[in-house]
Amino acid sequence: MPILSFNDVTIHLGGREILSPTRFEVEKGEFISIIGPSGCGKTTLLRAAAGFVTPSGGSVSRQGKVITGPSREVAFVFQDYGRALLPWRTVEGNISLALEAAGVPAGQRAARISKVLETVGLAAHAGKFPTQLSGGMQQRVQIARCLAQEPELLMMDEPFGALDAMTRESLQDELLRLVREQGLTVLFVTHDLEEAIYLGDRVIALRSNPTPQQPSLAAVIDVTIPHPRDQLSTKEHPDFLRPRRDLYHYLGHD
């Protein structure tokens, strides 16, 4: 059974159809990139999968059960890492927040916090406050907080969009390492064609202003680039350039 199923999901906002009936499935352990122009419904689709938004039509199911609200099995990484972190809590305190919400006993929190900080390379910064960290480090704290939940699904809404190019590439590689080490299932929204292909096992391409002739779901493209991937050789690989060209064709006129 797929871990996640989008069953003809339709979303209307402000009296306008943002997303026409959209259907696809996500298998356990897959990394799915979702790409498309602004206003095509990428983030809204992600929020529907997380239980934050109720579809106007159709449904989203997790392991066969219709999603009706947020779940502790789903963690969400937001684009605005500055707002996602509490400035009056240290790195350790921000990660603890997820464990407190989940009802993890106080005596068990320290070990889990230490483990995830080690995983994302922030063990030496546990006592710092968000304002003492770079943007990339703040985003790693948010990712660590999500990992502390031990989620089945990780939803990521343009998490690297506000970062400089070098930090972005570094976090892309770190994310791929975490996904492979922990067997995570990821839905990742981005505007960046290259990021979508570099990270994804499949890319879901959405178009804006859907019509019956041109529905929201423009394409589903398999990415066959082998792992491990790296920023130089992977982006010169024919299996990287081919889907890049195809996606540009599907989305280039939006």
From TrEMBL:
Keyword Membrane: yes
Example GO molecular function: ATP hydrolysis activity
Cross-referenced SUPFAM superfamilies: P-loop containing nucleoside triphosphate hydrolases
PROSITE patterns according to UniProt: ABC_TRANSPORTER_1 (PS00211), ABC_TRANSPORTER_2 (PS50893)
Pfam families given in the database record: ABC_tran
Alphabetically ordered keywords of this record: ATP-binding, Cell membrane, Membrane, Nucleotide-binding, Transport
InterPro entries: AAA+_ATPase (IPR003593), ABC_transporter-like_ATP-bd (IPR003439), ABC_transporter-like_CS (IPR017871), ABC_transporter_ATP-bind (IPR050166), P-loop_NTPase (IPR027417)
ABC transporter domain mapped to chain residues: 4-233
Family: Belongs to the ABC transporter superfamily.
The protein's name in its UniProt record: NitT/TauT family transport system ATP-binding protein
Organism: Pusillimonas noertemannii
Lineage: Bacteria, Pseudomonadati, Pseudomonadota, Betaproteobacteria, Burkholderiales
